[in-house]
Amino acid sequence: MGTTASQLGKDLLSEYQELTFLTKQEILLAHKRYSELLSKEDRNLTSVPMEKVLSLPELKSNPFRKRICHVFSTSDMKDGSLTFEDFLDLLSAFSDSATLEIKSHYAFRIFDFDDDGTLDGGDLEKLVNCLTGKTEDTRLTPEEMRQLISNILEESDIDKDGTVNLSEFQHVISRSPDFVRDG
Amino acid sequence: LPLLSLGRSRGAIISQYYNRTMKLRRRRQSRPSIKDFSRSARPSIRGYGMETDCMETEGRDQLVNNLQNLSLSDRVRMLRAMPLSVAEKSELRYLYSSTILLSTSLSFSSLYPAVALKRVSGRFGTGVLSYFLFVKTLLFFNIFLFLVTGLLLAVPQAVHPPTLTQGHEAFSGLELLTGGGYFSDSVIYYGYYSNSTLSKDCRVTSSSMEQQPSPSVSRRTMETDCGGKPSYNMPLAYFFTIGLAFFITCIILVYSMSKSFGQSFRIDKSHGILAMKVFCSWDFKVIKKTSVKLRSENICIQLRELLEETSRKHVQKTACQRIGRVLVHVLAWFICIGSTVACVLALYYFSEYMHKVRDTRFHLLWCCCQCWESFVGQELYRFLLMDFIFTILDTFFGEFLWRLFSQRVLKRKRKPVFDISRNVLELIYGQTLAWLGVLFTPLLPAVQIIKLLLLFYMKQTSVMMNCQSPRKPYRASQMSTIFITLLCCPSFLGAAVCVSYTMWSIRPSESCGPFRSLSTMFQSGKLWVKELETHNPNLAWLAWAHSYIVENPLFLFLAAGIFLIVIYFNTQVVDGQRKIISLLQEQIENVTSLNSLIQYLNPS
């Protein structure tokens, strides 16, 4: 299932093409990049540890990089390591041809910092802090944060349980066409 | 929480997709039997998931069964859209394994404009993108007009050039600016077109349609005079081409307006801007550290502004402020309408004065009035050109120099915002000119096409260099609806009314053009119908239909009445839907509080 050789078999390639939104060239490129991550380590490993994935230039500066690794990782140890297929999942979800539903589903999981299936006040606070950055002058004051979170919950919480679940999240997303292009 | 370690449990995803494949199967094939339905097909309720592991496998088998029965493309599409990992999906795939033929879907790799559009939309959001999409829409309208008038009017006339009464002027570069000179006696303008039936190798010069078609001078005998060669009735062609072009443009406009309206209309509107901003503003394609920092800063500033605005909205405007706003609006309208009326009156009195004087110096003006349609066409050509020149100047001064000024002199940190509304209004103005001019200058859409192409690339460069993304997350679909509505309602409607009035009532000039001996342009159609009736009594119904439908205003009133009734019904339906939505929201709240109460009373 993983990459044992430096070549990707034709059957596997066609299977991945069917199951993901990536084209053949993109899958081959992904394979190349993934092998480069592995080549510095033991070749027999089937998954790349999280630190190595985070060293990719595309993820290095992304404030959500750790969450991305945790969400796409299927390892039992929950350590954020990615197999090649997890890597393909990642690329497929962020590709341009992915559907709105896939993007919103994974975005919800990325934003769900405590992995409890809903976005509560704590998740939203961490989300906003990630968005606005680490420096002091771009952070919102506690007062602003409180107001922002209460506004967000007022706007998107339909069943008024104090959290945003997946359906409510998707409802907000569906009203913003920006999401599909930027995601 | 055994199954809810993920945002949505696998069992829920599988059962949701089971439902979808079921719906797809039902659509594509005959109904499956009742025994195929299973209780595990119900979607789970959040937090109170009733799926257990064994139900998951049961649901999965049902899903696999469904997938097997779908067509290949449906299956591939369904699999791709499932938010499961590749490993899980390939497991499903092996379960229904049949010989998989790889369906290579040809994606028309977009041309350069689409790549450019992606860059713009990535940085500036969909508000600015909707402007560029509008430019593309206008381009298609003009290409359609150009093809129709070019193929049906310009090409036949160019192949049979009329004998010219005066000598042909030489080409000098100035024609591109003035539209006159060499161009004035060419297919570009109305005056060039002959009023006869064109035929190969057979110039029928005396086919003035005003002569009552007696049986001896009929089109048929004219044709037999020409040896049965194919002939082309230019006045009729001109009239019907222009009419048809406008009619089809009208239909396309109304159709795209309704489609766009359907896509963008949200019953609960202008709600949730803040949530949208927070959930959707992160661009995962941003890679460089500096861009990330810039983006974060931008988001922070925009969030702060939006927060301020929402808190300000709760403060009611005082009556004084409202009256002040109304007064400003009234003043602006007054100034606009007043200056327009003043210009019109000034022109009118000036031209009256000119007519009285009738100086030889103004021979040109008088001469041009001999063929007033070409004159009007030239004027519209010049208007279009001026519009283009002013747009270029406006881009240069308004965007480029203003950005330099605001950054160096005013020391503002952010670049100016791209003014979407002003640019769109300029586009609509240009398009109105093009539509007005098609009757008099059949090749005017070509000029508009060139202008739009140049404008597209120019504005795109300018936006990337000089502007920043707008504050509010605009909804592209709503903006597109507004643009198309503005294009349809004052712009196309006005142009269509002017052209219809010209064709219906104004006397064409005597010395040039395809309608030179008729009392109105519309008469060419009437005479043709009469002719048809005399030759072919079977087509008498056509003449009857013509006189009762086209010439009778009652039919139009009836059509307009039915249209208004349909619109009224639709607005009532929308009102009802709004009420239902608020009722349903109340119900959801009630159910949730009931659930929490049950949970509290029965902790299990």
Give a description of the structure:
The complex is a heterodimer of chains A (183) and B (604). Chain A is mainly α. Chain A is 58% helix and 2% strand. Chain A has helices spanning 10-19, 24-39, 50-54, 57-60, 65-72, 84-94, 100-111, 121-132, 142-156, 166-174, 178-182; strands at 47-48, 82-83. In chain A, strands 1-2 form a two-stranded antiparallel ribbon. In chain A, helix 2 (24-39) crosses helix 6 (84-94) and helix 5 (65-72) packs across helix 7 (100-111). Mean pLDDT of chain A is 82; it is low at 1-5. Chain B is mostly helical and 604 residues long. Helices cover 68% and strands 1% of the residues of chain B. A two-stranded antiparallel sheet of chain B has the order 1-2. The longest helix of chain B has 49 residues, at 553-601. Chain B is globular. The model of chain B is unreliable at 1-7, 30-55, 98-112 and 203-227 (pLDDT under 50). The interface between A and B is large, with 73 and 67 residues.
Topology:
The complex is a heterodimer of chains A (183) and B (604).
Chain A: H1 10-19, H2 24-39, E1 47-48, H3 50-54, H4 57-60, H5 65-72, E2 82-83, H6 84-94, H7 100-111, H8 121-132, H9 142-156, H10 166-174, H11 178-182
Chain B: H1 10-28, H2 53-69, H3 72-81, H4 86-95, H5 112-159, H6 175-178, E1 197-199, H7 219-225, E2 231-233, H8 234-264, H9 273-280, H10 289-313, H11 319-357, H12 363-370, H13 372-408, H14 420-437, H15 444-466, H16 476-505, H17 522-535, H18 540-550, H19 553-601
Antiparallel strand pairs in B: 1-2
